[in-house]
Structure formats: structure tokens, C-alpha cells
Specification:
The protein is α+β, with helices and mostly antiparallel strands and 179 residues long. The protein has three helices and six strands; from the N terminus they run αααββββββ. It has two domains: 56 residues; 107 residues, Nuclear Transport Factor 2, Chain: A, CATH 3.10.450.320. It is 42% helix and 27% strand.
Amino acid sequence: TQAGGLKAAKPGDNSKDVSVQRVLNEETLVSAAQKVKEAGRDFTYFIVVLVGIGVTGGLFYVIFKELFSSSSPNKIYGDALEKCRSHPEIIGVFGDSIKGYGEATRRGRRQHVSHVEYVKDGLKHMRLKFYIEGTESGKQGTVHVEVKENLETGRFEVRYIFVDVETYPRRTIVIEDNR
């Protein structure tokens, strides 16, 4: 016989049959324990992957809601800034290239658009305030926007957009007024 192999048992010799049987049972027990261990590890990996998919889905939902929803302050800010850029009186005061920015943070970034959300008469309202500058030197303005929810469409509609020009002579330019 070869090394490591099993010898053929003689029909009258029961001791070898028992030893071969015992070796097979031990291999079966070890493989069953390994299967349970692998199944537990696979289940743990499955849970980790499931949690990862849940967290990723949550992040995509928040990003989509903030950037593409009609009710997000950033979307309303972008729409109001475009209306300011296309308004002829604003172009006449500030110049062609108009940029908008929000409140300054401690790090000097001006990306945060100040907004307040409230409910009045059962309708959601939002007020925003941001700033604009143009190519004309020293010309700055503060834009005030208010929107309210339309119950039929569920979207926010503009109530008003005003621009306070902060240079002499001080004046207010009305972009849109639907009050």
C-alpha cells in the first residue's frame, strides 16, 4: 500500500474495520464544525455588507434631497440667484458677472445660505438671505427671498425676491412679488 492510504481489511479482522470507521467519523465531525464556523463568518459578512448598503443608501438620499429637491435651501438659493442674474435692473447696477454667496463661517468660507423654515396657516414657509456682488467695484447687495409651499403640487413657490443695494443711494430692487 501507499503511505497515508488505508489497508484493505480481511473479512475476519474486525479491529481494522472499527479503526477505519472511527477515522471517517472524526473527519465528518471536524468538517461539520468547520461548516458551522464558516456559516457564522459568512453571516457576519452578510450583516456588514447589509449595513454598508443601508448607510450608502441613506447618504444618497440625503444628498439627493439637499441638492435636487425643490424644497431644499440650496435649490431655492440657486433659482433666486439665477433670477437676480437675469434681471435687467440688477445687471445695470451690479454689472454682467454677478456672484452670490452666503454667510461667512469661522474658516472664512461663504457657502452657508442663511435660511429659516416655519409653518404659517398650515403651510410651510422658508426665508433665505444671501449676498451678491458684481463686476462694478464696491457694489454689493443683500437678497431676501421667501417661498411658501403649494398644497396642490407640494413644491415651494416664490412669494417675493428683493435686493437691497448697499451703496449710495440705498434702494430696494423688487425682482418678484407674488404676495
